[in-house]
Amino acid sequence: MVDCYAEDKIYQILCLGVKKQYYSLDSLAQKLGVSTRTVRNYIKQINKDLKGIAYFKNMRGKGFYLYIEDHAKFEERFKKISQQLYIMDTLQKRLAFIIQHLMTEDSNNTIDELAFKMNIGRTTLINDLKKAAAVLNPYQLKIIGKQNKGLYLSGEELNLRLFVIENIYDYLYSDYPLDKEIKEIVLQTSQSYAIESSSQEMILKFVTLMLDRLLTEHPLDHINEKYYKLLETKEFKIAKKMADLIEAELNIAIPVPEIIFITLPIVGRRTPANTKSMAEITITEEIKALMSFIIERLDSELNIKLNNQTLMKDIEYHLTFMINRLIFDIRLINPLLGDIKRKYPVAYKMAEVAGKVIEEKYDISVSEDELGYLALYFGVFIGENENREKYLRKVAVVCGTGRGTARIVVIQLQRVIGNHVSIDLFSDNEITKEILSDYDLVFSTVNIPFPLEQPLIQVSEIFDEAFVAKEVEKVALYKKYNLPRVKLKHSILSALMDEDRFFILDHNKDYWENICVIVDSLYEKGYVDVEFKKRLKEREEKGTTIFDSYIALPHTLNYATEEIILSLGVFGYPLKTVSGKEIKLIFLLGVPQHMKQDSSLLVKVYDEIIAIASDQKLINGLAMSKSYTEISRLLEHNVRGW
After folding, report:
1. Taking 70 as the threshold, does the pLDDT of residue 277 lie above it?
2. 61 φ, ψ to 5°?
3. What InterPro entries does the annotation carry (predicted)?
């Protein structure tokens, strides 16, 4: 294990040396806050590490001077050291030093002694210990201080190791002298079982930490009984093979708990990307049953039916490793989580629904990081469902400039709509209403002097491809579901609603009574079938459809029409439910049967409602609206549902 404190002092000495000055032993000791003997040891270490590159020499009557023999190599080494080492005034480095010190020291140190070793103030250390407590808490680890006895680290060895792996491994073990032969054992064994490179790196970390703790007499004596279930797995056999080879190489004995420890990164690895690795994995009946439960819950809660068999198989593979990680406390950090939540809100909502099923079946908590990775699969499902090219066969491009500029427009459009759509180019003086009537969509860089039946998208010669892609998606969706051309709007909710599906509700009535007001009106107007209210009641009894942000989304199948029926009810004063939640908006959805097989429009509806749920000002504005016109105006100006 690397001594963070010593590294910092060595780095400080090098920083002084590159100034090309002479330093007496006493002055160096004073600058570093250590004894002269310690300075001699540091200089001895530097001269050993930089042999053939640079060295300190003590010149009689002058002091120590840094002589550089190979400037290029010294610059490279110095740069590497400066990048790897943060000065001790960075919080994460101080926390790493504190944990390193407490996990390796046999004797306890007082706060004053530890502060002296770190060369920081007592108050700074006390504040750091408070922050360390928050970081350690999820791992059931504590730093405990007893008067006159000092500080010590309390907790299970396994939890300590998992904390190190997931938080400070690079600080403590980046330069650990692991034998080349051990690395080869780990990598070759992993490759023989088609384990991918990212997982190989993690296994190497576990092996390094295991050997360091075992060889420094900090063995894994006690682990929870649940980990012994791994003894019968294929992953344990892989770890056992590694352990046998390491035992022979180092002439040591590796106990079973230690082998279980290095099994964890194998059993909890990310889902492999290559086909060969996937072929080695068995999907159990338990995982297949879990997948079925998730499909049923997505259907009942969101009316979204997963019908892509290949994707479902991929999700089953993902669930296999995900469940292992959750059961055996292997945490994944998802650096994409924020982007996933922002860009794929419906996919993340689907992952939350799946997460609830997992929590119910296994009595384990599912982290947001894991939900984010699961959401990526649902994002693929949503993306494949859109298939906008299918509803666009021919498009026309009208330009008032030269052909070269017009071709630039066409090239950009091909990137947006693909090469399967036919694109015809026209100048503005050769178009007629009859000519353009033969196209599914018209793009134009100039004003068209006559009204068109076809959807028209105005573009400039160099346009925002992301914006145009959204507009094309909108047109394709309108064609797919035969939505009225006159309602081609920014907001899908606005496009799907009408004046007679807008309701001002009564906060003095309860939640179900207000829903009945909406449903009864819809039934009288022929929008929903006679059993709609009954199905809606059954759906509500299964679980609430009330969001945490003043929005309710009751929904069920509707057999009265092939179109999606969307209604909005608003409360000028919030409705308080028996559960204590407040409701300001009720979006009621009637979903046609065919949309269960193709949910692309439904996904757009959910997308927009989720966006509204994050905008408190818009929620309040909608709740206070007195007419559909006000609602439509607010949605058009505040929501981009496409």
Report:
1. no
2. 85, -10
3. BglG_antiterminators, HTH_11, Mga_HTH, PRD, PRD_sf, PTrfase/Anion_transptr, PTS_EIIA_type-2_dom, PTS_EIIB-like_sf
